[in-house]
Structures are given as structure tokens and as C-alpha cells.
Amino acid sequence: MSRLWYHLVNKLFLQSIMKYTNTEEIGKSVNLIDWNEIIKHNTFNDLWIVINHTVYDITSFIQYHPGGHDILIYNAGKDVTDIFFDIHNKDILKNAEKFIIGKVLP
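Above: the chain's sequence. Below: its structure in C-alpha cell form.
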């Protein structure tokens, strides 16, 4: 992937997160969540992903993802750490804190 493409994708992703607004604050407290629960949330209407042992409920973000929803649904209920960082800059996660619902149960 070219550096230009990498930066373009990161910029679009960051812009889409910044535009996202929701009066409901997702994930105020951090819970430990078992993988058996995480893998159940794998649909367009209920989508969780794991990045660096942190569980994100990105259901309400699907429509704003600049890469489309198919890639999110394909990876729903999974650990997407490697895939995520192959495409995105780590700083993007600072803007995704509102989606955190917990940590993976060790």
C-alpha cells in the first residue's frame, strides 16, 4: 500500500469519526468481556470488534466507515488488531474511545 493511500484512508477514517455524534455515551465503565460473548456480536445491527484487547461496539459507526460496511461485518466479533493497524494510524483510536465497552477477559 502506498504511503499516499495510507494517509488518505487514515484522514477519511478520522474525519468520519469526528463527524459522528451520539447523545448516548457508549462504554462509560470498563467491563471484562468473554470471547463467547464477543463472537455473538457479528451483524450489521450489532457489531463488536477487538483491538489490542479492547472491545469496541461500533454498531452505530458502521454507516460512517469510509471503507464501507462489508469489511466491518466480515471482521465482526473478531480481534482485528493486525488488520486495523495495517490500514489505520494508531492515533485514530484516541477518537474512538466513545465506542469502548470493555476489555477482553484474559
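The longest helix spans residues 3-19.
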